What we know:
By secondary structure, the protein is of the alpha/beta class. It has helices at 17-20, 26-32, 83-88, 111-118, 136-143, 155-163, 231-248; strands spanning 3-9, 13-16, 40-43, 46-52, 55-60, 99-102, 131-135, 167-170, 182-187, 194-199, 206-208, 251-253, 262-267, 273-279. The strands form three sheets. Strands 1-4-5-6-7-8 form a six-stranded mixed sheet.
Amino acid sequence: MNRSISTLAGAPRKLDGGVLFGHTPRPRWAQWLRPDHENLVDVAGRALLVQQGGRNILVLAGADGLLAPPPRKCRCQPTIPGLLESLAQRGLGEGDIHAVVLTHLHVHPSPELTQLISDGEMPRLLFPQAHYITGERHWFRARHPHPRDRSLFVSPLLHRLEGSGRLVLIDDNRCDQLGEGWHFHHSDGYTPGQLLPEIAMPGGPVVFAGDLIPGTHWLSLEVTSGLDRNPEGVVGEKERLLDHLVASGGRLFFSRDPEVAMVKVMRDRQSRYVPFDHYEALSRFDS
């Protein structure tokens, strides 16, 4: 099957650098991503578009991209380009998406979106023709969250997904809705039941790293996030996944890295994972 992948730029966001880098000392991570006066750093909201057999499949890290952006209160407000604008640049609308793969269901809403949700004005779900695909174990976590991550799940969003009639929960390494060439790694360190899709490509597999490895700086095994539910588990999961990519000559796709979308990985003489063959963006990449 002919298959190509492209990057889509979702709405950029700011996250607390101290939380994002966990126990990594601030002088170290501040050299990687420069924080503002509130300790916030810019991260990407990058999505992956997979086009195969006349179908368009989105892969998202988290569920932020499922919600329609809040309407502007007045024309003087600037329009912030997001996922829909990025799709439009490729000649696609939300009705052209056949499936949305969600690595997990966390939401980091903007202040405007948070206010709408608290006021009971839940934005509509985007992609009305698509199946929403996520892990069965993670769905259970989302419906029965632990107090430590309860704030990352939005109950009205979960109810709308369930009521759509298009929610697909998988507990295996394959998904019938996606066909051949898709394999899922299951990860529990960041959040229980996170799905990491591996997509077969002619030049070697591409793994969407989700929030297990959000960007190049997290290739170091000792760099974890304050959001990780099990940091020790994250280290082992990263090592197994990266060893697999080194052995298979595969590539790693980053959802959060503000500068790098995809790399290959090798191990140096000190057994550190080193990125090379960097891509800042992809447009119908098929090799």
